[in-house]
Amino acid sequence: MSERAFAVVGLFDSPDALLRAVAPIRAASLGRVEAYTPYPVHGLATSLGLKRSPVGGMVLVMALLGAATALGFQWWVAAVDYPITTGGKAFFSWEAFVPVMFEVMVAFATFTAGLAMLLLLNRLPFFGHPMLGSSVMAAVTRDRLALAIEKDGDVELDATNARAALEAAGAQSIEVVALPAPSQPASARTLGWMLGGIAAACLTSGFLTYWVVKLFPVLPPMVHMLQQPRINPQSQNGFFADGRTQRLPVAGTVARGYLPYAVANADEADRLVNPLPRSAEVLARGRRAYSTFCSVCHGPLATGVGTLSSAYGAKPANLQSQTFRDYSDGHIYDVIMRGKNAMPSYAEDLSEDERWAVIHYLRALQRAQNAKQEDLR
Amino acid sequence: MAADPVALPAALRPQPLVIGEVTPGVLDDQVLSHTETRPPLKWFVAVTFTSMIATLGLALLGYTVYQGIGIWGNNRPVFWAFDIINFVFWVGIGHAGTLISAILFLFRQRWRNAIARFAEAMTIFAVMCASIFPAIHVGRPWLDFWLFPLPNQRGMWPNFRSPLIWDVFAVNTYFAVSAMFWYLGLLPDLASLRERARHPLRRAAFTILSLGWRGTAAHWRHFEKAYLLLAGLATGLVLSVHSVVSFDFATSIVPGWHMTIFPPYFVAGAIFAGFAMVIMVLIVVRESMNLKHLITERHLDVMNKVLLAMACLMGYSYMMEGFTAWYSMNPYLHHVFTQYFFGSYGWAGWVTVTCNVFLPQILWWPRARRSYPLMILVSLGVTVGMWMERFVIIVISLHQDYLPSSWHLYRPTLVDFGILLGTFGIFFTLVLLFARLLPVIATSEMKMDLPGAQPTHAGATHV
Amino acid sequence: MTRWTQMATVVGALGVAAALAFVEPQRFWANWLVWFLFVLTIGLGALFLVALEHLVAAQWSVPVRRCAERVSSLILPVVPIALIALLSLPTLFHKWTGAEAAHHPVVASKAVWLNVPFFAARLLLCLAAWLAGYRVLVSGSRRQDATSDPRFNVRARRFAPAFMALFAISITIVAFDWISSLDPEWYSDIFGVYVFAGTFLAGLSATALAVASLKQRGRLPEVNEHHLYNLGGLLFAFTVFWSYIGFAQYLLIWYADLPEEVVWYKLRIQGDWGAVALLLALIHFLVPFFALITGDAKSGLGRLRRVAALMLFAHLLDLYWLVFPSLGHGVLASWPELAFALMFVGGGLLWLGRAFGRGPDMPIGDPFLAQALEFRR
After folding, report:
1. Cβ contact B463–C233 (<8 Å)
2. Are strands A5-12 and A145-150 parallel, antiparallel or unpaired?
3. Range 244-303 of C in CB contact (< 8 A) with A
4. Residues in a beta bridge with A150
5. Which of A281, A315, B3, C131 is deepest in the core (most CB within 10 A)?
């Protein structure tokens, strides 16, 4: 029987008895000495020679790391990546970053304490320990204190001597915990099923997530923002008689700044006089307007050859010809307002000032192309 | 040589924390058996009742998500009302549990052992109820993930300079830390339940939940250190979480909100309201679960003394608020404080002060600290008073602030009331479920301090 | 040692007399105020500690309670110091005592509170409350040495809550009257809590320093590392508490940025005073926090002594930083400040030397002393 023993456990009835037994059992060197108690017993860990727990140091390091991470992250977000002005506060407002920094520090520290204690130091969860299945465990979690001599690595446990040593040390009762049968390694088939199952689960959840995320915004109430009691642009509706959604303004609506053009035809326009002075600013303004709107067809020198001339069938007028040099200012104004032949109206493109400035500029162009000797003086 | 108890006057004699002969085995049987046996009829009646209320609350919450915040009473200018009152209320209730299990642990107050477990559970349930409100009070709750700093293709981050984001971090951290602290404390008890379980499914469940805990000396050494550290960290949270909640108000310039005393005042109020709730649950637990010898009159006495101390702190805070409001010579602050007691909602101010300061003063009288009717009256009063205090702070300050043309009354709707009631239903349903599924007393912690549990040469006194 | 202290005190007193003659009155009285507050907060903080121990019926603290009681005897010399401090009202507090206050609307409307007679009356009431507390708690404890009558404990426990109420109101009055009213337009309702935190820490540090000093001289042999651990733990916890209160006040005032509140901080965090503020954060929070964070550090005798001494200096710096910027100058640290330091530190040490020389080092008549000496954490 002794070849199959994992541990020989002595149960004690008082903490003093347990502590007294630790030294002789350790001295006997019959195996690994382990104590099992339902609550922490003062002085037990020290007498077993256990070192101090490093949890404290780990928590301190991770806490500082958490604080630094939180501060650094907030700095980067607020001062580098997404700097927005709120309440007149500086982008890097360290005061405002302290609360989150503190909370993240505590969170890092907490998870370190809990997870380090469990996973790293106590190596839990672990469901395969031989003691878990034994009858000793029930007593040990209830009210008994136990000292166990356990199998140390590959060295066989001498159960008889262990039992004698524990009895000599004052154990009230002795239990032997058998070594569990060695567990079979997982067969290739089992592994295959497991991996296949995991892969299937991943694929399914991936697709499900994708479809759910696509579907989600069109479910009520998320879709309520889209389903509003209003008529959408470019759609038909039953509200208006003609079924149109885009409506024209009421007849007679006047745009802001609109002044009616009171001239009936080109001959009447002759009486219009250019109200702007022929100053450098006006000419500059006229040049800008001319370059923008007129030169594409009439050309930069008003010769009728512009960048778009070749694209059109109709020929833009050569404004340097005598006909147009003889036009009055008002006549040109009228052409700008009404259009002429293929030229559309430019009334919406040019303000009134701009139209007169263009006319000044055009006159300057005409004079420049037909310069006389006196102009040079 | 300990002081001879007979020679001491009665007032100085220490009252026992455990009445009668209690051995660790007996303790296990008395406490753990509640999780192993069929609950009595009154439990089923109670849980049915609370579940119905919880269902009502959940239905109204669902209705709110569907219809929008318009079905609440929030309006211009009272943009925050029952939603935030309930949030602050429930987060506050949670703080008592953390104080009892963490701070009293650090101060080595042994009386805390018998009540720490369910107090901590109450914290977790209270924080769960609280977190409903920030989630639900935004116009589009399905976009709540925008509150978290998750990388996204909108190119946006949350505004870390806002107290509302600090809240997100604080409450989430509080929940995580409380849950971790509670669960770790449960591990040895889960191991006990595992060993006592006879049904294979129950045994398997507790094996997994207990993570295979064996109680070796090494286990306990690391466990004790981690538990101490977690207690210290949780203590920091008790101060910081409700302070961050108070920052929601105190960082603003709404008259009556920007008072620098808000952080400690809110923390004191939270502990106050939480203790009142714990006392009420404590009474029910000790009576209905035959645990009067473990949750003794001394426990009730001390809890009520803490409640009284907190009531005095609240009195100090109200006095400071009132004095500073006058001293500031700020006309807006003067107006709001007048409104607190003599305005349209002036009754709320009086209810607050009466329930929070005047009523608990009867606890100076030792008989009151042992009398169920008086205790329950005071605790109920405190619960109502603390809720009303948040009402006073939020609604009265908002409904008449700087611009008179914006002044408007606030009227809560039935949905508001229904959701508040529903959270009580959720909370008490969870408490009732906890009482029958998990040990309400931390048996391993109690066993540690029973007579004869520790070796004599290591010192017997833990005062 | 005592000879040096006596000589230093006399030199200091001469320096103070010279300062009275040659230094501008505001600066003289600012020094007097800082030292008045320093001695007061140490004594009152120690008395609060004694009352707290009775309130919660703490037993671990019985062996160290006599040290706290002796430190609290500083309240007795505080009475004449406080009465002399009343002479500072016309100069140091001129913003509300001076003639110009009547023309300042905000200050004038506070005149029902901020006027000399009521101010003085409040001070007298506070002194009376503190003396009453001293009589019941400390004199009663001394008497118990001879009588061993446990009824003192009953009386002290019954009185403690009343003392707490008196303490809360009186420390708030000290904070608002003697520090906050230097800038009468400013207000902050957490200020009483802030001064309380500093007061308790001062009393605690002085007690811890006294205990550690006595132990290093071979006295208090039965006070063990477990008692020291609790003292260190309290120091650690209340360092965090003070820092939390100080930061909370700063954060809220910074965040809302209201002119009437910010002006107080502007004076204290800009320029020279900003450097002092940083130093304060360092020695009042960072250094003690990290120095006391480990369990060993809290119970180490030498460590406790050094940290306690540092914290007393930090508390002095805190009071200096609270009071002096209101004068409107930069950092003032020259021979007048040194003279005051010599006189008050020397005088305080002489007073405490006498207090610690009389009677037993522990409350030998306390029925819980024996149990407390066996305390294990």
Report:
1. no
2. antiparallel
3. 247, 250-251, 254-255, 257, 293-295
4. A7, A32
5. B3
